[in-house]
Amino acid sequence: MSNVELLAQARVPQCSISYMLTHYPHSLQMKCDKFKSSVDKAIKMGFDCSRMQFIRATYVLCEMSEQAWENRIKVYRRFGLSDTEILLAFRSHPFFMKLSEEKIRRGMEFYVKEMSWSPANVSRSPIILFYNMERRIIPRCRVIKMLMEKGLVKKYSLANFLSFTDQRFMKTFVHKYNKDLPDIMDVYRAAQVL
């Protein structure tokens, strides 16, 4: 109850407190000092207590040890992200810090090394690290890369084409260019098998 009271004192809306009770009850059962520390950190990081992102950030901060947090920070830094960029990505998508170190490494290596995207671009759309590498990221990126090399696509948003439904992606980037590039479907399917 004292953790619930702490949220109420921080002016967290009742609907957000209810959401936390329903979705993250373990966090509310933590010792008061650990819970208060997580709430204080979320506020210090710039989360608005009246928004749902505050609840998600508090949950992530409650569930992660200091060591796990530092390990994630080190992995992101290795790929060139600044502390400011890491914080902005966390504020945009708090679960960005809950990804496993391996998932972070694989995603960042692919985007930065194979696709030549800047780490800053990745941090501005942290959701792209959550997608499945084999089923979504690699096949779609291979298609986009092919279209760019042929000059058929010039500008695209990293987060957009990865967030499209399969049907929309196929319609927009595969079927649309099937006449110009008859092997585009083979590139897409071959990448899914890798």
Automatic annotation (TrEMBL):
Q: Name one Pfam family in it.
A: mTERF
Q: Could you tell me which InterPro entries the record lists for this protein?
A: MTERF, MTERF_sf
Gene Ontology MF, one? nucleic acid binding
GO BP, one annotated term: DNA-templated transcription termination
Q: Which UniProt keywords apply?
A: Transcription, Transcription regulation, Transcription termination, Transit peptide
Q: Which family does it belong to?
A: Belongs to the mTERF family.
Protein name per its UniProtKB record: Uncharacterized protein
